[in-house]
Design goal:
There is one protein chain. The chain folds into two domains: 8-46, no CATH class; 66-500, Alpha-Beta Complex (Amidase signature (AS) enzymes), CATH 3.90.1300.10. The protein has 15 helices and eleven strands. The protein has helices at 8-18, 24-34, 38-46, 123-130, 173-180, 197-203, 237-247, 292-307, 323-341, 355-360, 373-389, 392-412, 437-445, 453-457, 485-500, and strands at residues 74-81, 92-96, 134-139, 186-191, 206-209, 229-234, 277-281, 311-315, 417-421, 461-469, 472-479. It has an eleven-stranded mixed sheet, with helices on both faces. It is globular.
Length: 501
């Protein structure tokens, strides 16, 4: 499609949208002034694009038969073999379906993206293959990854193998279910409000939201540039540490990465918890939505840590209770800008821009009614606060996130880690297909109180199993200083051994 300037009528309508008076004479003046730019834009069209590289052969992907997909967790099955040797040699991996794999259809849970096929590999995909990993498929996720439950994916709900009829936790539903079912060894998730840690908690597995920027987000579809995280999931801490060791580090593309510090995350996992100073965040317990069994299971794990020699005390972080409000202002308006202003690729940020994805989302406005209630309501709110209040709430929330980060940093003074329940309650039943708006929203958004804050502050946070309530897994969350992911993993491994014993 060759670049052309708008006609006078289009300029008049654009002016009305922007609050600029454009009469016929001024329209002609504008066109005269812009005419020299036409050959420059057309020259840009002729230059080759710079897609992300592809280093390993593959034969695309295929939809599994229902009998081979009992939990609804696979979107695509693949057989992409990496290097002959490496840290991940012989290990099967599932990749959340908001991550680009060249030649494999990517849907991100959304009917709007059906038929989209990326032309390049996300950085973390290349790193996994370089390390010998075997990518056996793309896992289902919620519609545009905008839900903590399992009620919005266009391919249907994903069911928990641990608790059939219940959600494995979202938005990385498929990766969690496949790990819980033993169908893969390791998996990738993405986290903007808890979408790695919520499914880890609900499914009884382990999931780490790394420090912001530690793992490059290049080639992953996000919600808001400032809260996007991608990270490892596994059945145990050692698996999470191994995968993080492979995917962490700067790639020279993702603008989220600044002063990244990488460590050998698999080292030191055999150390015990003795001497670790852990602050239990008072405000993370006893929430209006808290399940007493969840709080009790986490309290019992705290007693076990203390008995094993950890130095545990309670710390008050009043700003923790403001986390969700700050997150909501950023996430809803930020996602509105990403989808409606940046065609799913963001805007005013550095990084790799997926042109094919932007084209695929070009018809969003015409097909917006296909979106689930979570997206419709979130986008209506995002558009309203942006237009009515000129972005004031997004801007103020971005300012307040610094205060929230400082509150946790202050709590970490003299302590190694903070501790809290990952989610206030265990897994929920999946709503029926004809569920009303209220049921879908409650299922999707009510579990974010403890997880969402750390997508704002960027602290590393891991969820590890710590018991059950009503036969459902309970997750305990450990939070560390920025780029202290190794210590978070060490402590999680120590807790894991206590829990297993």
């Amino acid at each position: 499609m060759a670049f052309n300037l708008p006609n006078k009528d289009r300029l008049h309508r654009l002016g009305a949208q922007l609050g600029i008076d454009v009469d016929a004479d001024y329209a002609q003046t504008v066109l005269d002034m812009l005419a020299p730019l036409v050959p420059e834009f057309r020259a840009l069209d002729r230059l080759p694009n710079e897609p992300l590289p592809v280093h390993y052969p593959r034969a695309g992907g295929s939809r599994p038969e229902p009998r081979d997909n009992p939990w609804g967790a696979w979107w695509m099955r693949t057989d992409i073999q990496g290097a002959a040797q490496g840290k991940l040699a012989g290990l099967r991996l599932a990749i959340k379906d908001n991550v680009q794999i060249a030649g494999v259809p990517m849907m991100n849970g959304a009917s709007l993206l059906e038929g989209f096929v990326p032309d390049g590999d996300a950085t973390l995909v290349t790193r996994i293959l370089d390390a010998g990993g075997h990518i056996v498929g793309k896992s289902v996720c919620e519609y545009f990854s905008f839900s903590g439950g399992s009620a919005t994916s266009a391919t249907g709900p994903v069911e928990s193998p641990r608790n059939p009829g219940h959600t494995p936790g979202g938005s990385t539903t498929g990766s969690a279910a496949l790990l819980a079912a033993g169908e893969v060894d390791l998996a990738i998730g993405a986290d903007q409000a808890g979408s790695i840690r919520i499914p880890a908690s609900f499914s009884g597995i382990v999931g780490l939201k790394p420090t912001y920027g530690l793992v490059p987000y290049t080639g992953v579809m996000g919600l808001d540039y400032t809260i996007d995280h991608v990270g490892p999931m596994a059945r145990d801490v050692a698996g999470v540490a191994l995968l993080l060791e492979v995917i962490a580090g700067e790639d020279g593309i993702d603008g989220r990465q600044r002063n990244v510090r990488v460590e050998r995350y698999t080292e030191g996992l055999d150390q015990d918890v003795k001497g670790l100073r852990i602050g239990v965040v008072k405000e993370s317990f006893g929430l209006p939505e808290s399940h007493p069994g969840t709080d009790a299971a986490v309290r019992a794990a705290i007693d076990a840590l203390r008995a094993a020699g950890a130095i545990v005390d309670e710390v008050s972080v009043p700003w923790h209770r403001h986390g969700f409000a700050i997150w909501s202002a950023i996430a809803n308006e930020g996602t509105y800008h990403t989808l409606y202003g940046g065609q799913g690729a963001g805007h005013l940020t550095t990084g790799a821009y997926p042109l094919a994805l932007m084209t695929a989302l070009g018809g969003l406005r015409e097909r917006a009614n296909e979106m689930p209630h979570t997206l419709k309501i979130g986008m209506l709110l995002g558009a309203y606060v942006h237009q009515q209040y000129q972005g004031r709430y997004y801007a103020k929330a971005q300012n307040l996130r610094r205060r929230l980060r400082q509150a946790y940093d202050d709590a970490l003074e003299g302590r190694d880690l903070l501790l809290m329940p990952t989610t206030p309650f265990p897994t929920l039943p999946i709503p029926p297909a004809d569920a009303g708006v209220a049921a879908v929203i409650q299922h999707s958004w009510t579990m974010l109180a403890n997880t969402s804050a750390f997508d704002l502050t960027g602290h590393p946070a891991i969820s590890v199993p710590c018991g059950e309530t009503d036969g459902k897994p309970v997750g305990l969350m450990l939070i560390g200083r920025h780029f202290d992911d190794a210590l978070v993993l060490r402590a999680a491994a120590g807790h894991e051994r206590l829990h297993a014993g």
